[in-house]
Records
---
Amino acid sequence: MAFSTVLLDIEGTVCPISFVKETLFPYFLQQVDSLTQSREPQVQDLLSQFKVEDVKAHIRDLVARDVKDPILKQLQGVIWQHGYASGQITAPVYADAINFIKSTNKPVYIYSSGSVKAQQLLFQYVRGSDKAIDLRPEIMGYYDINTSGVKTKSESYRNIARDIGCDPNDILFISDNVLELEAAQKAGLKSKLAIRPGNYPVEDLSAYDTISDFAQL
Ligand SMILES: CSCCC(=O)C(=O)COP(=O)(O)O
Ligand SMILES: [Mg+2]
């Protein structure tokens, strides 16, 4: 498979789904009660964009249903910053993904439902054997649902290819979500399905080109 550029999903591809569901989301939920008292202008600005009466209940509901809401995703990025900066959170990026990102001579871009800020934090604070590893210098750019659109729409992948300045056919997109892979393929990108422990089962695996370790690239 020929490609010049790599576009990576995060959850279920470069790190376990359990990190998002059992560490990031609970950390965020712990802060929901105090959110309305926050002095951070960005938090207040984001809260005001939820056009609902009970903001806290709305946020809890979105998280419980894992809704990829653009305002929620931005808010989570701001809150997680405290967790990463205080050392309470480090990101368990798979060792093979770290090695690939560090050693490949192809440009690596990220596309996640998590906000660009949340993505940059995750790659700034990658769990290492003694201290956190900062992978940001190895990553050429970040895309999210605010910059590019939802991950299940082909248009989003065309937007990203245009922004990178690359023919869609030259981009390999890797994700654990078959709806995302199908949207990327329709836009002309190449794709691989990430197989990682704890990922959701896929009905017909034979329909996809799979990858379980980045050393296979
Ligand atoms: C950027 S870390 C937070 C992950 C997140 O909030 C999320 O919704 C994960 O979605 P992905 O597109 O990376 O599978
Ligand atoms: Mg994913």
Note: The chain has nine helices and six strands.
---
Amino acid sequence: MKDSNPSHAPKAVTILGSTGSVGANTLDLIGRDPDAYTVVALTANENVAALADQCRRFRPQMAVIANPERYGDLVAALDGTGIEVRAGADAVIEAASLPADWLMGAIVGAAGLKPTMAAVERGTTVALANKECLVCAGELVTAAVERCGSILLPVDSEHNAIFQVFDFDKADDVSRILLTASGGPFRTRARDSLAQVTPEEAVAHPNWSMGAKISVDSATMMNKGLELIEAYHLFPVPEERIEIVVHPQSIIHSMVEYADGSVLAQLGSPDMRTPIGYTLGWPERIATPSPRLDFATLARLDFEAPDPDRFPALTLTRDALRAGGSAPAVMNAANEVAVKHFLNRTLSFLGITDVVAETLAAMPARPLADLDDVIALDAEARRRAEEAVMRRA
Ligand SMILES: NC(=O)C1=CN([C@@H]2O[C@H](COP(=O)(O)OP(=O)(O)OC[C@H]3O[C@@H](n4cnc5c(N)ncnc54)[C@H](OP(=O)(O)O)[C@@H]3O)[C@@H](O)[C@H]2O)C=CC1
Ligand SMILES: CC(=O)[C@@H](O)[C@H](O)COP(=O)(O)O
Ligand SMILES: [Mn+2]
């Protein structure tokens, strides 16, 4: 029987990257109100054990493992469940294309670009955590959102904060976006002292529990540069009016300043279930278990200017945004390669931004044609970044 009140029908949801930090937080919320959702598809890269556990609990129509070598393991793990099991990058795109009311894009890196585009082109409401998509192909993604009438909801905590206080009907009255940055685990360290830092030190974020790649990005402050580009594509504000301010406590998640001097901010404990919940419930608000702020015991909120001398990623990213075209995609690909090598201990921490700078210098900015162009450019930038890493070995 058809529900006479469609707003009470369970929301059909797909989660790309369900086994990661954002994906698991999304399922945590869904699991707290199981009657409100049906799960269409869950996807992972290679973590069969976690994906199979999630599938047994949430019973999606389809489970996809991107690494085809893990297909047999997933089939065996889900034997008898009736869940359709698929493998490979194309199967992730198929999962993203299944009819759903809401899709969480929580794959890490440019690998999420094609699946995100598939969901946008299907007209699905996309909650996007996967910032690298917008960095690589912001114009193409936002144009597809317009063309296909889909809705893009920012999950990244800063962008979600801005989204909550940005008056799109009065965008001309916005004078500045103030993107807050924690400063990462090395905020107070001298640059020379960073030469020997280990992956364990770099992933130890002071406030947030996140996947390894974004944690390293926070440590180099590349994350804030990626977020600058992400904000540029999500909000109608010119680049020179998007400023970064270091706020070590990560309580204010970003701010919007208006022409009259008013500054609107969104605050909350550093728990991704608040911004994820905002997008999951949108346009309503839903309850989340995120710890509440206690202003009586919140000792202080500090702010300081970012330091591009110690964190050159801040300059590299703004320059790439200004250069436009291919530059942000090249920068992102080189960063993904460099972070992978740092985590594998085959590149030093300071080598990360060196490799990004070298790759950008070798591939001057040019206009982007289409999605295939971005994918080809991404592959070429990865090849050159690998060479830059090898030269340092
Ligand atoms: N973590 C956070 O709090 C925040 C994250 N973000 C952004 O959200 C995205 C996800 O971050 P996070 O959850 O921390 O990352 P994780 O590394 O924790 O999770 C990444 C997810 O993507 C899957 N995955 C990795 N590579 C591929 C691939 N090639 N193809 C398909 N799936 C793949 C992983 O599968 P498997 O587990 O099998 O490896 C996993 O499910 C990133 O873009 C990040 O910048 C933004 C704001 C906050
Ligand atoms: C939770 C989230 O959105 C991350 O992007 C977080 O903001 C990282 O913190 P910093 O990059 O500010 O250290
Ligand atoms: Mn963020």
Note: DSSP finds 15 helices and eleven strands in the chain.
